Amino acid sequence: MKKLFAILAVMGVMTLGSIQPMMAQEEAAAAETTVVEEGGIHKEIKTKYIEGGADFMSLVSIALVIGLAFCIERIVYLSLAEVNTKKLMANLEAALEKGDVEGAKTICRNTRGPVASICYQGLMRIDEGLDVVERSVVSFGGVQAGYLEKGCSWITLFIAMSPSLGFLGTVIGMVMAFDDIQAAGDISPTVVAGGMKVALITTIFGIVAALVLQIFYNYILSKIEALTAAMEESSITLLDMIMKYNLKYKK
Asked: What is the pTM of this model?
């Protein structure tokens, strides 16, 4: 029995010794496969892009790039238009409380953004009466809102164009598939695969481009809504301050 146990122990040690190198080899192979897969993602995208056809894929890419350019321009413009509205109105109130209208105008001139511009226009008409100030603020607010929305129509155009170009590529791919069937006189999967691949790839890239632009567009709309609300609130606050401190008008 002792000899039997000794033999089994030796066999177990030998088995473990042979299993461990095999496991190490399998782990190394799995790691190499993972590295290859990770390194090949961008290659795979590039390959699919080429397989989709240079004509329609380049059109989708152009629509995406131009749409992103408009989005970036709007985001930069709207970011520069944002100011600390509460601080601005507090400074204006401190000046108007003393009756220093010129000082309030100076504060507005030295502050960027549509909120300060609207307040400045209202202060410019302060000698003509409250009704004139209100009309001036409302009119100039409409102008500033137009500036905020400038270029957004182009973004919506490219959002609509991207999937449309993808679907156009889909139709072209289907036509190519039927041409191949007609030429080969056979409807086997091998004959149809080329045209179907073009159709599906162009559709995917068109939809992805539209989704990217739509995300940026919604972000831009949220910034425009926030600025518009700040403009309206500041206009009302300015009119309330003029009435509160009973600023004198020239008759």
From this structure: 0.73
Quickly count: other Cβ atoms within 10 Å of residue 211's Cβ. Answer: 12
Distance CA 44, CA 51 (A): 10
DSSP state, residue 113: S
Q: What is the DSSP string of 150-195?
A: TTHHHHHHHHHHHHHHHHHHHHHHHHHHHHHHHHHT---HHHHHHH
Q: Report the 10 Å Cβ neighbour count for 67.
A: 25
One-letter amino acid of 123? L
How many CB atoms neighbour CB 56 within 10 A? 22
| Distant-in-sequence, close-in-space partners of 176: CB < 8 Å, separation ≥ 6 | 194, 195, 198
pLDDT tens digits, 98-147: 888 899 999 999 999 999 999 999 999 888 888 888 898 999 999 999 99
CB atoms within 10 A of CB 41: 9
